Protein: FAD-binding protein
Amino acid sequence: MEMPSPNPAILARKARLAERLLAVLPDDAVIQDEAETRAYECDALTAYRCPPLLAVLPRSTQEVSDILRICHEEGVPVVPRGAGTSLAGGALPTADCVILGVARMNGVLETDYGNRIIRVQTGRTNLSVSGAVEEADFFYAPDPSSQLACAIGGNIAMNSGGAHCLKYGVTTNNLLGVTLVMMDGTVVEIGGAHLDAGGLDLLGVICGSEGQLGVVTEATLRILRKPEGARPVLIGYDSNEVAGACVSDIIKAGVLPVAIEFMDRPCIEACEAFAKAGYPMCEALLIVEVEGSPEEIDHQLGLIIEIARSHNPVELREAGDAEEAGRIWLGRKSAFGAMGQINDYMCLDGTIPVSSLPYVLRRIGEMSQEFGLDVANVFHAGDGNMHPLILFDANKPGDLEICEAFGAEILKLCVEAGGCLTGEHGVGIEKRDLMLHQYSATDLEAQLKVKDVFDPRWLLNPAKVFPLAVTEGRRTAAMAAE
Ligand SMILES: Cc1cc2nc3c(=O)[nH]c(=O)nc-3n(C[C@H](O)[C@H](O)[C@H](O)COP(=O)(O)OP(=O)(O)OC[C@H]3O[C@@H](n4cnc5c(N)ncnc54)[C@H](O)[C@@H]3O)c2cc1C
Structure:
């Protein structure tokens, strides 16, 4: 993975920069020691690592503003970081950057049940937002599988989703406002405790902008009343394509389950060995969950089971009680850990129209033969968000390169099928060079102009999202302006 060379003039200014930062931050908020900065050398895409010049851990919007103003004056790049669980290398540092970690900014600033909102600092973990409103019977809907660790700031930057996003939408559908600190230290409020933006919808630009436009320090989120109940059904098929067709038919019928999850045989086998959830051995498993009152659940599950039966399932198991429901989810929730125990894998993330599922799954199977690498599929099928896991041997010379080439072809397939390169994990460095498969040069230029407005000196989160060749001129001009 190519990254721009560090700027020697910035490296030489490390001591002065640290001194200026220490003038506005407490001693424990500036990490200069090389061994300690290694804690920030990568995110969950661990194949690429680089310790930053410095790491800073602010506690307030004012501290973030001071840090950015100083880095702006010094011409030093800044990489915002939440919990570092990005799978796309979105929080990967460069050697001449300051990592700005928001993890210490984890407070709840306001809860307002009457207006169904919560305002939090963006270092707060996703799961602990629901935790803060649980007693009042509320919850925060977006539920990435990493929710125990990942932070709201990272969720906003990546527009994260999760199993329940089929019904509740992804982060952008549950975000009402942000406090954003621009690269020069200016603090702006975008959106607020209301449903619509006055003026241009800049919130939609910030959500999913991968730390390119500013650092989000506070967020106003929509919270929802917990449903009366929920019940999953497990459906097994003897082919991926038939399972894909079943998903497509459920969506076409207009039923709105809260989640439709898909696992294929390699994944089922790994999960069963790991979690012993009692899954049947078949080619493809669906977990479909509905929620509401007992009558609503019965009605929706009735329709789903009828559709499932029309595709001749080899297994159909409705959860009778909470214990059975827990067992149905157990394997799926352990999927990534289970796969990691048996093989090295690369987790892809692309989105397709749901009706293309049978075709895309068949093509992935054919390409797996062509490239000679197995693929395990586990994903949020209801909203067309695919996570093919390409299995490879990290110790076998050449396997990683074949895996990367295969991964690129799968992502291009998603685009050809009418979908896009990014599902929930963003572009980061992982899909940066594939952007030209999705966008024309003119489209990309329009996106770059938005970046120019928010961050004219191109200092925020360098070398992510846009192909390096496309941004080279802007980066060189920014460096020359120092
Ligand atoms: C096991 C596992 C399961 C996962 N499952 C899911 C899933 O189901 N759904 C899903 O969507 N993702 C999933 N992910 C990916 C990841 O958890 C999400 O992308 C998450 O939103 C990243 O949050 P973070 O706080 O860790 O961000 P980081 O990794 O720290 O950063 C991610 C990006 O956000 C930027 N950023 C972070 N904080 C801020 C801020 N305050 N202001 C501006 N920019 C900021 C960074 O610069 C970077 O570009 C999973 C990851 C793992 C490891």
Summary: The pocket of flavin-adenine dinucleotide is lined by residues 43-44, 79-87, 90-91, 102, 122, 144-146, 150-151, 153-155, 157-158, 160-162, 210-211, 215-216, 336, 424-425, 461 (CB under 6 Å).
